[in-house]
Design goal:
The complex is a heterodimer of chains A (343) and B (283). Chain A is 33% helix and 21% strand. Chain A is an alpha+beta fold and 343 residues long. In chain A, helix 8 packs across helix 11 and helix 8 crosses helix 13. Chain B has two domains: 103 residues, Translation factors (Elongation Factor Tu (Ef-tu), domain 3); 123 residues, 3-Layer(aba) Sandwich (Rossmann fold). In chain B, strands 10-9-8-7-11-12-13 form a seven-stranded mixed sheet, sandwiched between helices. In chain B, strands 4-3-6-1-2-5 form a six-stranded antiparallel sheet. Chain B is globular and about 50 Å long. The chains are: A alpha+beta (343), B alpha/beta (283). The interface between A and B is large, with 46 and 45 residues.
């Protein structure tokens, strides 16, 4: 089936979102009073101004895999009862950037194997994702080098491309097609010129990246050889053990599990984000730690650029550039890639 | 509960502590005997020697521990636990009759019904790493005709630190088992072997032909045990080791235990020495 391509006048966007937000929660980028642009749950579409001009500072990760979530409650008063907690909230995500959708598709893959993660898929089920193609990449973006943008080729329900006073709308998955059918009166047919304009914008976007990060080159080097010990030591020495890179990373999904006792026989089992760069990540009871601080960054970089390439055929860095902003030691993944390529 | 556990691998089976045996003279090693609270869970539980499970104490957390009982022992599970951190300390304070949870079994276990069948087996162990090898040995003895000669070399610092002392004495009486128990130094009342495990292994290790070695112990013991074995023709494909790493989920998602691309919780914990040598040095 050839995917449907239509036009949505910008004046019709609010009306469409108002309709789509009736059956589902609506999440879209909003800039708050502190100047932070975040994917935000919108309860009043008419009283909220969307901000599609900036890159949201956090990815969609936290919506499906929250920073902290109760995966079970327990009650040992009479027996030993653990009750799984499932959070289901049908949600429509609007204005999602292609790096962030690529990251969700990656999470879908890794949380379905070797075992299916119930908590993740409870949150993931019944969600619709409408992306906004990046016609102008942001300062730290390098998704062109990771094969995850600036335009999506698959995986979206609907993809929008800003053509000025209107959006070109492409339906990717069935849910997208259903929206076009159910709310046809918001849309009008796309002309050949519209499609040509989108093609031209996608070509221009590719040329607008400010950074050139040689991800593929680095992956090839990592596949065939060892990293110079000095690179690990120099970069790790500047890692402040803060975990910021892993937290903002849309594909970092390492987690910890701990119990929080609330009363003597009742409590919660909580899953929370972890970071393999933390010095305690691999430390065992008794104190033995197989990773020393000289290699604090090794697990993270090799996982994304070497082991995931071996396992899944491509790196699990989606080029969003958020770690570049967050790392005050300037030892983000692009620093590593540059060091490997230059070496 | 049992149906839920099938769907959700994070849900522990409720168990009751049926017995606690203090194994070592310093009191730091205890064997916990668990019985399932629900018969249906017990019937569903099927493990292979060498696998591990998550011991789950509500309010404290979970720890991965090797299963010390053999699949041939029915109706209960045994775990021998060293007191080392928060959860093991809480476990050591628990009493017979207390309830807790178990998730599992997890990992691959020794290839006891496949690659090891028909072979001469040597078990080499030091300290409290003997636990899953106890499970393995009991399983092999229960299916004795499936294996050739069985040799056990097991050592600890002192006689009082040896695990399963009553069983060791019973095994020593068997004529279908060649067992060598050693301690590091002479000790009062000890009439057995004295010397480090590698030294004893050099003296009594069987020929490499049609044989497999299962080695669990401190890294230093494994390191010095290999040269005497190699000298008489053993190669790394015949040697099975069991790795341990920090773990949180046990189902391949939390990524605390991975060594490079390899998940100790799923691909291991049992690896041949050749496989271990191919891993990045992160364990």
């Amino acid at each position: 089936m050839k995917e449907t391509t239509v036009i949505l006048a910008k004046d019709n966007l609010q009306g469409l979102l108002r309709k789509l937000g009736r059956d589902k929660s609506l999440v879209a980028p909003v800039t708050n009073q502190w100047g932070d642009t975040l994917y935000t749950e919108i309860t009043d579409i008419d009283g909220t101004e969307l901000d599609l001009s900036k890159q949201p500072q956090a990815s969609l990760k936290g919506f499906f895999f929250p920073q902290q979530e109760v995966i079970q409650t327990y009650d040992t008063t009479a027996g030993y009862e653990f009750t799984p907690q499932r959070h289901i909230q049908p949600t429509l995500f609007f204005g999602v950037r292609s790096c962030d959708l690529h990251a969700v598709l990656y999470m879908d893959m890794i949380f379905s194997s070797p075992e299916r993660d119930d908590a993740y898929f409870a949150r993931r089920q019944d969600t619709t994702i409408i992306t906004l193609a990046c016609t102008t990449p942001f300062a730290n973006c390098f998704c062109n080098a990771t094969g995850s943008g600036p335009f999506m080729e698959y995986g979206y329900d609907l993809q929008l491309t800003d053509l000025g006073d209107r959006f070109l709308v492409e339906a990717g998955r069935q849910q997208g097609e259903q929206i076009l059918q159910a709310w046809g009166h918001f849309f009008e047919p796309a002309t050949e010129e519209d499609v040509q304009l989108q093609y031209q914008l996608s070509l221009e976007a590719g040329g607008r990246f400010q950074r050139k990060v040689e991800v593929e080159h680095a992956c090839r080097i990592l596949a065939s050889g060892e990293v110079d010990e000095q690179i690990w030591q120099q970069l790790s020495a500047r890692c402040a053990d803060c975990g910021g890179c892993a937290y903002v990373c849309p594909t970092c999904t390492c987690f910890n599990i701990r119990d929080a006792q609330q009363e003597p026989s009742k409590g919660e089992r909580i899953r929370s984000w972890d970071a393999c760069t933390f010095s305690g990540f691999t430390r065992m009871a008794g104190g033995h730690n197989p990773i020393n601080s000289d290699h604090a960054l090794q697990r993270r970089f090799l996982h994304k650029l070497k082991y995931d390439v071996e396992k899944h055929g491509k790196p699990s860095c989606v080029g969003c550039g958020r770690c570049v902003d967050i790392c005050f030691g300037h030892v983000d993944i692009t620093t590593f890639i540059e060091a490997v390529v230059e070496d | 509960m049992s149906i839920q556990s099938e769907i959700n691998p994070y849900l522990p089976y409720p168990v009751i502590i049926d017995d606690i045996i203090v194994e070592s003279e310093d009191g730091n090693l205890k064997t916990f005997k668990f019985v399932f609270e629900n018969k249906a869970d017990e019937e569903k539980w099927q493990h292979v020697a060498g696998q591990f499970a998550m011991l789950s104490i509500a309010g404290q957390g979970e720890i991965p521990i090797g299963i010390a009982s053999s699949p041939s022992e029915k109706g209960y599970l045994l775990f021998t636990v060293n007191r080392a951190g928060k959860v093991t300390t809480a476990l050591h304070q628990m009493k017979i009759g207390d309830r807790m949870g178990i998730r599992g079994p997890m990992g691959n276990g020794f290839p006891i019904d496949t690659e090891l069948k028909g072979k001469n087996i040597v078990i080499i162990s030091g300290g409290f790493a003997f636990t899953t090898l106890r499970a393995t040995l009991l399983y092999m003895l229960a299916n004795r005709s499936d294996y050739g000669n069985i040799t056990v070399i097991y050592g600890s610092r002192t006689p009082g630190m040896l695990l399963y002392r009553d069983e060791l004495a019973e095994w020593a009486k068997r004529d279908d088992l060649d067992i060598h128990i050693t301690v590091d130094a002479e000790a009062e009342g000890w009439n057995g072997l004295v010397g480090f495990v590698p030294t004893i292994a050099a003296d009594v290790a069987p020929p490499a032909d049609n044989a497999a070695a299962l080695i669990c112990g401190p890294p230093i013991m494994i390191k010095f045990t290999m040269p005497p074995l190699e000298k008489i023709g053993w190669n790394d494909d015949q040697v099975y080791l069991s790795l341990e790493n920090r773990m949180k989920c046990g189902v391949g998602h939390c990524l605390h235990c991975n060594v490079g691309p390899t998940l100790v919780c799923k691909d291991g914990p049992v690896f041949t020495r050749s496989q271990v040598k191919d891993l990045p040095l992160e364990y």
